[in-house]
Specification:
The complex is a heterodimer of chains A (416) and B (480). With 416 residues, chain A is an alpha+beta fold. Chain A folds into three domains: 239 residues, Uridine Diphospho-n-acetylenolpyruvylglucosamine Reductase, domain 3 (2-Layer Sandwich), CATH 3.30.465; 89 residues, Alpha-Beta Plaits (2-Layer Sandwich); 80 residues, Alpha-Beta Plaits (2-Layer Sandwich). Chain A has 14 helices and 19 strands. Chain A has an eight-stranded antiparallel beta sheet with strand order 15-12-14-13-17-18-16-19. Chain A has a five-stranded antiparallel beta sheet with strand order 5-6-10-8-9. In chain A, β8 and β9 form a beta hairpin. In chain A, α1 packs antiparallel against α2. Chain B has four domains: 87 residues, Uridine Diphospho-n-acetylenolpyruvylglucosamine Reductase, domain 2; 117 residues, Uridine Diphospho-n-acetylenolpyruvylglucosamine Reductase, domain 3; 112 residues, Alpha-Beta Plaits (2-Layer Sandwich), CATH 3.30.70; 85 residues, Alpha-Beta Plaits (2-Layer Sandwich). Helix content of chain B is 32%, strand content 19%. Chain B is built from 16 helices and 20 strands. In chain B, strands 15-12-14-13-18-20-16 form a seven-stranded antiparallel beta sheet, with helices on both faces. A five-stranded antiparallel beta sheet of chain B has the order 5-6-10-8-9. In chain B, α13 packs antiparallel against α14. The chains are: A alpha+beta (416), B alpha+beta (480). The interface between A and B is large, with 78 and 86 residues.
Chain lengths: 416, 480
C-alpha cells in the first residue's frame, strides 16, 4: 500500500516533518519503516508522537542507527522517529562541568567542542563519530571505562523527553547532586527507546586527564593473567580501565596469547606510578607500554564485522567468575572482557556454540545476551535469555508509560 | 487507631516484644531527625526477617492499614513518620551482615544495619562502604537506600545509588522480589529507580552493596578565608583543574563560632569568614603534587593560610567539627531547622549572599555548613519552637531559600529527601506532567497507596499544594 493510500501515514506526512525512507536509512532485522519522522524541535517531536499514538503507529526512535541490531526484532514497525535534527549543545557551564545537549548530537562532535575547555564526556560506545547521545543513553552500555562514576547511569543528571502520548516531561536537574523526585534517569538509561524519546540530556563532565598511559601484559596462561589482574586491582593507583583479550584478538592487535591491557589516566605522577606498579605483576613475557589508540579498537569491538561468526554474545558475570567465563568462551573467535565489571563480548560461531555458551554461562552464574545475530535466529530466540525475576514490575512500568505499546514494541526484555 | 483483630494478628505473626502498641512505647517514633514534623504512629513492629516484614505487609494490605518502613529515624524530611496514622515497620532489628564476598568486594546486608558498622566490619580487609552521611554512626543502610544518601565523600565516590547492586524488596502487596545482583541484570534498572524512592515503592529488606578499597592515603587540608566568595571561587578552581578531592566542605563564620565554642572544637580559626576543608585521597605517589596544587589555588584565591593535618588524630578532629556541626548548633537555640538545597557550584557565592539577605528580611539567624564541591547547601536556622511568630518566619524564609535554589538552576534537595517536608515544593521544580509521570511510576509499585502515603509528591492534583507551607509541629524542646 502506498503512503497516500494509508490515511494514517498520509496524516503523518501532512502534519509533521516526515519523509519516506531512503537507501541511507538503516533496517532493523530486515524491516524498514513506512515513514521517517524528523522533527526539528521538541515540540515537533511531541506532535509526532501524539499523532502516532492516536493512529496506533509503532515507532522506533532512531539516532544514527549504529546499534539497531541490539534487542529483539520489533513486533511492529511503522515509523522511525529520528533525532537527527535535534542536535547541538544547549548549554555548557564550564565552571560546573555540566552540560545540556540535544539527543541527536554525536559523541565525537560533542567531545570535540568540549575539548576547547579541556573537558569531555567519559563515555566510550562503539562508533562515536556517529553514535548519538540519545542512542548511547537509550542502550546504557558503558564502554571500556566500567568503574562507577563513568557509566551512563552515573553521568546522566536529568533529562527532557517525550512520552508515548506526546507529553513532554523532564526529570532530575542540572546540578551534580539532586534527590528531588524519583530517579527516573536511572529508569530511562538502558530502556532502549521503549518508554520515551529522550530529547535533551543533562550530563556531568570530566576534566581531560593530563596524561593517558596504556600498558600491555602478555601471558601464556589465562590463570596468570587472572593473578596479575587481582594484583593490579589492589594497587595504590588504580587503572581507569582494564581489558582482557583472548589469544585471537590479541594476535590481531599485535600481541600473542592472553593480553591484559591497563589504562591509567590522570596526573603524570599517578599514571607513571600506576604503570610501574602494574609492571610488577607482569609474567615472564613482560609488559610494554603501548599506544592508547588500542582502546578505540576495543571500544568499537561490539560493532565490528563478525567475520565467520554468526553471533556476538555479551556475558555478564560476577567479577570473580569472569576469568572462568572467558576461558569457556575463548574458542571460535575474538573475545574481549572487562574484569573490573565482569563483562565479556565474544564472537560466537553458530546456534550450537550459543547453546554451549549459555550453558557454561549458567554454570558461572552469568547471563548471556545476544547482541547481534541474524534475524532468523532472533525471531526464534529471545536475545535477552532468561527473564529476570523482577520482570513483572518491568512489564507494569512499560504498560503504565506506554499503554498502547507503540514505542519499540517487542524489542526489549521478554519482548516487551 | 488499629482494630483489636489487627493487633491480635500482629501478635500472632511476631514475637510480642516486637509489637509496640502503648502510647509511651510509640511516642519516640513520632518524628525523625527533624523535630519539625510530628505524627504518632498507631503501632510499631520490629520484625527480624524479610519473611516477617512480608507477613506484616500482607496483613496491612488485606486490612487497608497504611504503613511505612523506618530505620534509625535520622532522616531530616519527615520520610519515616506517618503523615497521619498507620503502622511503622522499624527495621532496626534486621541488622546482620549476611554474606561478605571479598573476591567480588560486595556484601549482602540486612537493611537495618547501621552504616558505619558495615565499614567497621570490613575494615580489616582493607575495604569500606563509601556513603558517609553525617549521621553514619546511627543511620541505617535501608534509610540510605530510601534517601539515596550522600555525605561529604559522595563528591568523589557518588551517593548511595552508585554503591547498591541488588535489593530484596517487600512489595506493598507483600510479595518479595529480588532485583539486580552481582551481575548486571537485564531489563530496566529497577535498583537504580528504587534507590531514592523514599520508602514509597517498597520495603528493601536486604541490599547487596559494593565495598571500596580503603585509599592508600588520605590528607585533609584546612584553608580559612576572609571571604566566603573567594573561598567558593577556590572550590570551583580546584574542581576545574582536574583534581577530584574526596571531599570539599565549607563552614561559615557562625558555624565556626558554634563549633569552636563546644567540646568538639576542631581548631578552626575564629576570625575566618569561611573555612574550607579539602580531603585528598588515593595513592601516596601523586599526593605531594595534589597537595601543592590545592594549596597554591587556595592561597591565590586569598586563603589566610593553608595547613595540612599532620596525623590521624588531627585529621579526625578537623572532620569531627564538620560532622558534629549540626549537633553543636544546639547551643544556639532550642530547635534547629536544617535546610537542604543545591545550586550550580559556580553560583554558590551569589546564593549565599542572597540567603543572608533572606535571613535579614525575616529576622532569623542562619549558619551555613555545606558540601561546596557539589553546590549542596545546608542553611541551618536555629529557632525557638515555642515562639509561633518565629516559627512562621522560619518557614517563610525556608520557602524563599528553596525558591532561590530553583531560580539559580538548582534543586530543592541534594540529599535529605522530599518526604513530608518538601512535597509541597515539588511544583517549584516540576510541571504537572512531570509530577504525573512520577506518580504513575509510583503506582506501578504501590498501586493502593498504602505504603508511606502522602510523601514526595504533592497530594491532590498536581500542584494543588503550590502555595501552602509545611507546618512545623509544636516543639517538645528537642533539637537534633
Amino acid at each position: 500500500m502506498t503512503i497516500e493510500a494509508d490515511p494514517s501515514l498520509k496524516r503523518l506526512l501532512d502534519e509533521v516533518e516526515a519523509r519516506p525512507p531512503g537507501p541511507a536509512d538503516p533496517l532493523i532485522d530486515g524491516l524498514s519503516p513506512s515513514l521517517v519522522l524528523e522533527p526539528e524541535t521538541e515540540e515537533g517531536c511531541s506532535r509526532a508522537l501524539a499523532l502516532c499514538q492516536s493512529e496506533g503507529m509503532a515507532v522506533v526512535p532512531l539516532g544514527a542507527g549504529t546499534r539497531l541490531e541490539v534487542g529483539n526484532p520489533p513486533s511492529r514497525l511503522d515509523v522511525y522517529l529520528s533525532t537527527r535534527a535535534l542536535a547541538g549543545i544547549v548549554d555548557h557551564v564550564e565552571g560546573d562541568l555540566t552540560l545540556v545537549v540535544r539527543a541527536g548530537t554525536s559523541l565525537e562532535a560533542l567531545n570535540r567542542e568540549l575539548s576547547h575547555a579541556r573537558q569531555f564526556l567519559p563515555l566510550d560506545p562503539p562508533l562515536p563519530s556517529r553514535a548519538t547521545i540519545g542512542g548511547i543513553l537509550a542502550l546504557g552500555e558503558p564502554g571500556f571505562r566500567r568503574r562507577p562514576g563513568a557509566r551512563p547511569r552515573d553521568l546522566l543528571l536529568g533529562f527532557e523527553a517525550v512520552l508515548a502520548d506526546g507529553t513532554k516531561v523532564k526529570a532530575g536537574g542540572r546540578v551534580v547532586k539532586n534527590v528531588a523526585g524519583y530517579e527516573l534517569s536511572k529508569l530511562f538509561v538502558g530502556s532502549a527507546g521503549t518508554l520515551a524519546v529522550l530529547t535533551r540530556a543533562y550530563l556531568k563532565l570530566r576534566a581531560l586527564p593530563e596524561e593517558v598511559v596504556t600498558l600491555a601484559l602478555v601471558f601464556s596462561r589465562l590463570s596468570r593473567a587472572a593473578q596479575a589482574f587481582h594484583g593490579i586491582a589492589r594497587q595504590g593507583v588504580l587503572p581507569e580501565a582494564v581489558a582482557l583479550l583472548n589469544p585471537e584478538l590479541s594476535r590481531e592487535l599485535g600481541w600473542e596469547d592472553w593480553t591484559l591491557l591497563a589504562r591509567f589516566e590522570g596526573f603524570r605522577e599517578e599514571t607513571s606510578e600506576g604503570a610501574d606498579e602494574a609492571r610488577r605483576h607482569a609474567g615472564t613475557r613482560g609488559a610494554e607500554s603501548t599506544r592508547s589508540g588500542v582502546w578505540d579498537e576495543l571500544r568499537d569491538f561490539p560493532a565490528r564485522p563478525l567475520g565467520e561468526a554468526e553471533l556476538l554474545l555479551r556475558g555478564q558475570a560476577a567479577p570473580a567468575r569472569l576469568f572462568a567465563l572467558a576461558e569457556s568462551w575463548q574458542d571460535g573467535g575474538p573475545l574481549v572482557a572487562y574484569p573490573d565489571s565482569g563483562l565479556v563480548y565474544s564472537h560466537t560461531r553458530d546456534l550450537e556454540a550459543l547453546a554451549n555458551r549459555r550453558e557454561t554461562a549458567a554454570f558461572c552464574g552469568a547471563n548471556a545476551v545476544i547482541e547481534r545475530a541474524p534475524s532468523s535466529i532472533k525471531n526464534e530466540i529471545d536475545v535477552f535469555g532468561e527473564i529476570p525475576q523482577a520482570f513483572e514490575i518491568m512489564k507494569r512500568v512499560k504498560e503504565k508509560l506506554d499503554p498502547g505499546g507503540v514505542l519499540s514494541p517487542g524489542r526489549f526484555v521478554g519482548r516487551l | 487507631m488499629l482494630e483489636k483483630p489487627f493487633r491480635d494478628e500482629l501478635l500472632r505473626l511476631l514475637d510480642p516484644s516486637a509489637c509496640l502498641f502503648e502510647p509511651h512505647q510509640v511516642l519516640v517514633y513520632e518524628c525523625d531527625g527533624s523535630t519539625a514534623f510530628k505524627s504518632v504512629p498507631d503501632a510499631v513492629v520490629l520484625p527480624r526477617s524479610t519473611e516477617e516484614v512480608a507477613a506484616v505487609v500482607r496483613l496491612c494490605d488485606r486490612a487497608d492499614v497504611p504503613f511505612l518502613a523506618r530505620g534509625a529515624g535520622t532522616g531530616l524530611s519527615g520520610g519515616a513518620t506517618p503523615r497521619e496514622h498507620g503502622l511503622v515497620i522499624a527495621l532496626t532489628r534486621m541488622n546482620r551482615l549476611l554474606e561478605l564476598d571479598l573476591e567480588n568486594r560486595v556484601a549482602l546486608c540486612q537493611t537495618g544495619l547501621v552504616n558505619l558498622e558495615i565499614s567497621r566490619a570490613v575494615a580489616s580487609h582493607g575495604l569500606y562502604f563509601a556513603p558517609d552521611p553525617s549521621s553514619q554512626s546511627s543511620c541505617t543502610l535501608g534509610g540510605n537506600v530510601a534517601e539515596n544518601s550522600g555525605g561529604p565523600h559522595c563528591f568523589k565516590y557518588g551517593a548511595t545509588t552508585a554503591h547498591v547492586l541488588g535489593l530484596t524488596v517487600v512489595m506493598p502487596s507483600g510479595d518479595v522480589v529480588r532485583m539486580g545482583g552481582p551481575r548486571d541484570g537485564v531489563g530496566y534498572d529497577l535498583v537504580g529507580l528504587f534507590v531514592g524512592s523514599e520508602g514509597t515503592f517498597g520495603i528493601a529488606t536486604e541490599a547487596l552493596i559494593r565495598l571500596m578499597p580503603l585509599p592508600e592515603t588520605a590528607k585533609t587540608l584546612l584553608a580559612p578565608f576572609r571571604s566566603m566568595v573567594t573561598a567558593c571561587e577556590a572550590v570551583s578552581q580546584i574542581v576545574a583543574s582536574g583534581i577530584v578531592p574526596a571531599a570539599l566542605e565549607m563552614l561559615d563564620r557562625p558555624t565556626i563560632e558554634v563549633v569552636e565554642a563546644g567540646v568538639i572544637a576542631a581548631g578552626y580559626p575564629r576570625d575566618a569568614e569561611a573555612v574550607l576543608l579539602v580531603e585528598l585521597d588515593g595513592a601516596a605517589c601523586g599526593m605531594d603534587r595534589l597537595l601543592s596544587e590545592v594549596r597554591r589555588i587556595c592561597l591565590e584565591r586569598g586563603a589566610i593560610c593553608v595547613s595540612v593535618a599532620q596525623d590521624e588524630a588531627e585529621r579526625a578532629r578537623l572532620w569531627l567539627g564538620r560532622k558534629a556541626a549540626f549537633g553543636a548548633m544546639g547551643r544556639m537555640s532550642t530547635d534547629l531547622y536544617v535546610q537542604d538545597g543545591v545550586v550550580p557550584r559556580s553560583r554558590l557565592p551569589e546564593t549565599l549572599e542572597r540567603v543572608a539577605a533572606i535571613a535579614a528580611k525575616y529576622r532569623i539567624r542562619v549558619a551555613n555548613v555545606f558540601h561546596a564541591g557539589d553546590g549542596n547547601i545546608h542553611p541551618c536556622i536555629p529557632y525557638d519552637g515555642r515562639d509561633e511568630d518565629e516559627k512562621a518566619r522560619v518557614l517563610e524564609a525556608s520557602r524563599e531559600i528553596m525558591e532561590l535554589c530553583v531560580a539559580m538552576g538548582g534543586s530543592i534537595s541534594g540529599e535529605h529527601g522530599i518526604g513530608t517536608e518538601k512535597s509541597s515544593y515539588m511544583s517549584l521544580l516540576f510541571s504537572e506532567d512531570d509530577l504525573a509521570l512520577m506518580l504513575s511510576v509510583r503506582e506501578v509499585w504501590n498501586p493502593k497507596g498504602l505504603l508511606n502515603p502522602a510523601k514526595v509528591l504533592p497530594t491532590g492534583s498536581g500542584c494543588g499544594e503550590k502555595r501552602s507551607l509545611p507546618s512545623i509541629a509544636a516543639s517538645a524542646g528537642a533539637w537534633i
